[in-house]
Amino acid sequence: MCFGAGARLAVLLCACLAAGGLTACGAGNDDEVTLGAETNSSGLEQNRQKIRDLERRLARRERQAAAKSTSDAAPSGAGVLVAGAESSFDTLASSLGGEVGIAVGAVGSDDAQQLGPLQSGSAWSTIKLPIAARVIEDAGGADVLSADTRDLIRRAITASDNAAAASLWSQLGSQHGGSPGAAAAVGELLAGAGDSATTVSTVGRDGFSPYGQTEWSLSAQERFVSSLAAGCVAPAAAGELRSLMGQVVSDQRWGLGATGLTSYFKGGWGPGSDGRYLVRQVGVVEQDGGSIAVALAAIPADGQFASGTDAISQLAQWVVDNTTWSNASPQAC
Q1: What is the pLDDT of residues 25-69, one digit of tens each?
Q2: What is d(CA 233, CA 332) in angstroms, rounded to the nearest whole number?
Q3: How many Å apart are CA 81 and CA 104, to the nearest integer?
Q4: Which domains does the chain have, with CATH numbers?
Q5: Neighbouring C-beta atoms of residue 51, cutoff 10 Å
Q6: Do residues 219 and 119 make contact, with C-beta atoms less than 8 angstroms apart?
């Protein structure tokens, strides 16, 4: 992938145009709330979004390729995990039982690695990150938010307060045209991080919030937090959210928060229709100049919340123990 950037961009843009008219958190309780469909963009706007995404990816990959050609970094696509990580992960997953999965990559990189059979599920309260990010972006930065809104964001991220998140969602609805508009606005933010596959839900389940039921893959989660940490998406919100993700309350500091390394994260959990808990966490870990974006998920064999958080903690520790930190230099946008 070393031909001229201008020629490659032209090819990509022509192909794009020709292709088509281009959460539940709290101390283990079932605590999502129902607020009770989405607005389709025009073909032209979809084309423009695809072009912007192609341009962003091309520019990022050109910079990464140039940096790697003059350094001792691992070849593109090698990832940050140590050699033989797959076998080690399989051993851990077997010992944990149930279903588990991870996605991990250097911050700002598109080269994430995925392991484990569990690679998607309801977002639960991890979706509060892009909701908060959209509120901050709409305002133009955290400093210009009202004190009340800033407090809502703090509570939603650090304590996963559901009432606070519901108020933020309501604010987005008021500004963008109800629940469908709020969903589209958050979806637009995700698309800015290169995730055009995720559709933010406007339909709740069994009393849980609609947005918490969003189907959000680990790869898309990792890409979002990676882009956020690199300042590639929601730049007006990145600093505030990083700070808040480093202040998560003590009883939610499992997973990445239990590794002993500098970390910024957000968890989410809730029961499936079968009553078994899905526990998730997404965040960033830093060590020795390296910075990785991580998404973790577990449905424990016994279906219990506590077992899920224990599995997430073991997965997080495995990730930091099996990362080649010299290959995890953060990438620029």
Answers
A1: 434 444 453 333 333 444 554 555 456 456 545 544 443 443 333
A2: 12
A3: 8
A4: 5-327 (3.40.710.10)
A5: 16
A6: yes
